Amino acid sequence: MSSDIPLKIRVDIRDLWDSPNSSIHKPIEELTKTLGHKITPIAQWPSLWIELGSRFPDKTVFVPTIISTTIVWYERLLARLDADEEWAEELLTALAEVGTGGLDLRVEPAPAKANRPSTTWDKKVQVFRLRIPNTDPMSQSRIAAFLEKDFEGLFTPGGPVDDDVDWADVPPATSSAPADASRAPPPLQRGPQAADSSVPAAPERLPVLGALARPSDLFPASPPYILTVTLTGREGMIVQCSHEPSLELMNEYLKKWGKTNTNDSMRRPIFKLTMVESDFCIGLMDSLYIEPNMSYHRSVNPTIILSFIEGVLGYKMVYTTSSYWMYRCTTLLKK
């Protein structure tokens, strides 16, 4: 293996990709049973690291991300085979030229301007290609949606047959087009029966555990994000959120504009803000505690916080009581 690849990456390739215990083997075996052809993934590690490495300051995430995307490819192909007999026949016809021998899936970096993963069938050398873009991490559901679109047109005229088409011009699935009525948020409901009817459909196949990134990378890239505000009277309030960057922005903004308590000899702000690490996992902040630095003789006014959540962060309220608010955001948020 190329010495240009950092040692940590080479170790992860050995332990997570090449290992007989790699999580990638299960979807390969399941697809082989259904398709009758084994498709072997061949990752172009030197070029992948050269083109995509700048997106991974934490090297421990690089190989799992490639594995995760590759597993999604196998799962989406298998799901389409199970769901669409006509398409399955087209695939088998195309693969008949290969004979009973094995097939390759070339995992390689996408063209420089590509903004989403793509897959093609290269007729010339009879291999599949999975191209991974140099973009911020995506949730598995978004990756699956892009690949599903490519699989759908794999054998249609003008579809994603590999003839050096530049995929940079393919727009992302999350278009910024104006929202229509069908996408409008549901009316606000109060009490235990409140619910958001826009909950996304459950995935057809659960992801493999070993392919999931660490929590600090997984949740920022996996909407919907959930945010709650709990008012604790004179003791302050607690803001909890599955999207750490949202909490960070709120924390920094409130600290920047915090009002000094003129009755405090230490000249401290009226409120103390504390980011708290999640009890579920290491390295992920999921709570912001807002508490008075001194005795506070009135209930904390939550309106500024609630306005910031909706007006700045873009979350939508889905449930509320007299001292509790729950918000939800389905848009992928980037820093």
Helix content: 25-40%
Characterize the biggest β-sheet.
Answer: 6 strands, antiparallel
What's the tally of helices? 9
Strand order of the largest sheet: 7-8-6-5-10-9
Q: Compute the gyration radius: what is it? A: 24 Å
Tell how many strands the DSSP assignment holds.
Answer: 10
Structural class: alpha+beta
Shape: elongated
Uncertain parts: 161-202
Tell me, rounded to a whole number, the average pLDDT: 83
SSE arrangement, N to C: HHEHHHEEEHHEEHEEHEE
Q: What is the terminal-to-terminal distance? A: 35 Å
Question: What fraction strand?
Answer: 15-25%
Draw up the topology in text:
Elements: H1 7-17, H2 25-35, E1 39-43, H3 45-52, H4 62-83, H5 85-96, E2 103-109, E3 118-122, E4 127-132, H6 140-152, H7 215-218, E5 225-231, E6 237-241, H8 244-256, E7 271-277, E8 285-292, H9 303-312, E9 316-320, E10 324-329
Parallel strand pairs: 1-2, 2-4
Antiparallel strand pairs: 3-4, 5-6, 5-10, 6-8, 7-8, 9-10
Describe the structure.
This protein is α+β, with helices and mostly antiparallel strands and 335 residues long. It is 31% helix and 18% strand. It contains nine helices and ten strands. The protein has helices at 7-17, 25-35, 45-52, 62-83, 85-96, 140-152, 215-218, 244-256, 303-312, and strands at 39-43, 103-109, 118-122, 127-132, 225-231, 237-241, 271-277, 285-292, 316-320, 324-329. The strands form two sheets. The chain has a six-stranded antiparallel beta sheet with strand order 7-8-6-5-10-9, covered by helices on one side. A four-stranded mixed beta sheet has the order 1-2-4-3. β7 and β8 form a beta hairpin. Mean pLDDT is 83; it is low at 161-202.
